[in-house]
Amino acid sequence: MRKEYYRKAKVPVRKKGFVSNLGDKLHAYLDIHAHAFFSSLGRLVRAPFSSIMTIAVMSIAIALSAGFYLFVANIQQLTDSFEDSNHMSVFLKEQVSDQAGAKLAETLRSYGNIKDTKLISRSQALTEFREYSGFGAAIDALDKNPLPAVIQVMPSSESMTQQQLEQLRHTLSQLPEVDQVQLDLEWVKRLQSMLALAERGVTLLSTIFGIGVLFITGNTIRLELHNRREEVIIAKLVGATDRFISRPFLYTGFWLGLLSGITAWLIVTMMMMVLQTPVDELSKLYDGLFNVLYLGFIEVMALFGISTLLGVSGAWLVLVYQLRQLNPE
Amino acid sequence: MLKFDHVCKRYPEAGDVLTDVTFHLKPGEFAFLTGHSGAGKSTLLKLIALMERCNRGNVLLDGQNLNKAKNRHIPYIRRKLGLIFQDFKLLNDRTVFDNVALPLVIAGHGHQEISRRVRASLDKVGLLGKEKKYPLTLSGGEQQRVGIARAVVNKPPLILADEPTGNLDPELSAEIMKLFEDFQQVGVTILIATHDIPLVKKMGHRVLKLDHGRLVAS
Ligand SMILES: Nc1ncnc2c1ncn2[C@@H]1O[C@H](COP(=O)(O)OP(=O)(O)OP(=O)(O)O)[C@@H](O)[C@H]1O
Ligand SMILES: [Mg+2]
Which atom in ligand 1 lies closest to the alpha carbon of residue B13? Predict the structure, then answer.
């Protein structure tokens, strides 16, 4: 009777015990993770030479991809600043007067396939040239203005085909006042299509280097697993699951990936800093047209994320395969 | 507790190692497994720990048919066993405490629980106070007792020992055997493979004798 009562009274106590036991287990689980997290880092630190070698190789591979990406992005912004790459320069014959030039500009503006025109008279051209070219003194030495007047023509549509542009150019060059017509930024067009190719190149290169990084981590983990064979087998004998055994190795992959990502970022940033001064000099000449682009916050985070992911995946692939083979005999 | 039912084990290289082995160990029983070298003692123990699988017959542990156990269940089955080896199989770069704690860490116990049980276990084998030592600084007998502490720390219902005294002198061997008897006292089932016939005779427990893979006495 008393015993029954005692048992009943114990129910809530047991419930509490259950909850705190669960808390204890959760705590233990987090402990195991924290331990694997730090001990795997500790292992890397305790074998500094091999860790540095591995991380160096991995980070160079990652830095090459990131560097190429950044290079393309920098050129990209350069061409972006020359929008409207289908502008044309219509050079007028020397004997055409400023008034006639202005009249022609007006006429051209009324063409259906021309959006706008702008006349740069011979004297304006001279002023601009003096200002930007750095050859002002040379020009002053001449007794006559050698520069022709130019009408800048902006075609009505951004998306005119090469053929339509060519046709417009031909029409304009037939006008009596016109000396020659030049498609302004044809080279930008070419550069842009080259950049599109380079972007593909970045993707391809990153994929290849990514696979490389995967293999490097995989191989490092394989060696580590081999070195700790005994330990793995003993853990298996006392009831460790593959998941338990994998954990510290996955964290090793995590650290290798993350540290390589950070190192790669430092390498790329340093490269850009080396380039900063000459680019600034160059930029000054071109009216501050371009800036050195560095990796942005999101890009840096993506870089770290991807390298870490590669590290963990490389470790995981090896573990899935090797742990099955590694059995106590 | 443990049941062998017409068990056969064949290695492709060595032919039949165990032939038609049948026996039953009741909970709390203490048995020796003897036989000449190469008789199949270690192989029999490996079948229980699922380090090998039998070709024919059934091995039942606590009513569970080990033949049918999936690979991912093996760790959980091993947690019901306390395994003890002739070469101790200790982690030499870890302290005694960490070695004994390993099964508890694996099973996901909390800090305090681990600390308490490791101490209790070390106390049982007479090694309390040596938690911080490393295995290689201990004598053979002490190392084996660390192995035993690790095997019992999880309170397994069945202890399997493969020549646990193979490397020890008679006096130490007797001490170790005494320890196993203590565990039997609290209800643990014990199966020990050994060559040490005089000791087996002296202790007077049940003997399973293998001869070329056949059980000739039980
Ligand atoms: N993994 C294996 N592959 C092939 N043959 C094996 C394997 N393990 C054991 N054997 C063979 O099985 C037989 C029994 O070996 P086992 O280790 O079970 O004997 P034992 O009774 O434990 O001997 P000992 O007393 O020397 O330890 C031996 O002939 C051995 O060569
Ligand atoms: Mg043997």
Answer: 4
Q: Identify the pLDDT of residue A318.
A: 95
In DSSP notation, B99-150 reads HHHHHHHHHT--HHHHHHHHHHHHHHTT-TT-TTS-GGGS-HHHHHHHHHHH
Please state the rounded mean pLDDT for residues A285-300.
Answer: 80
* Nearest ligand for residue B210 CA: 1
Å from CA of B46 to ligand 1 middle: 10
Instruction: Kindly state the average pLDDT of the residues B188-193.
Output: 96
B60 touches chain A (CB under 8 A): no
- Neighbour tally for A16: CB within 10 Å: 10
Q: Cα of B197 to ligand 1 centre, how many Å?
A: 19
Average pLDDT over residues A48-56: 93
Which of B8, B21, B32, B41 should be mutated for ligand 1, with most atoms under 8 A from CB? B41
Q: How close is the nearest chain B Cα to the Cα of A329, in Å?
A: 6
Distance, in Å, from the CA atom of A52 to the CA atom of A47, rounded to the nearest integer, reads 9
Helix or strand or coil: residue B99?
A: helix
Query: Residue A14: pLDDT band by 50, 70, 90 thresholds?
Result: very low
Q: Which residue has the tokens 């035993």?
A: B148
Give residue A175's pLDDT band: very low, low, confident or very high (50, 70, 90): confident
Across the interface, of B78, B113, B154, the residue whose CB is closest to A237 is: B78
Predicted local distance difference test score (pLDDT) of residue B48: 96
Atom of ligand 1 nearest to the CA of A329: 1
In the numeric block, which tokens belong to residue B45?
């123990």
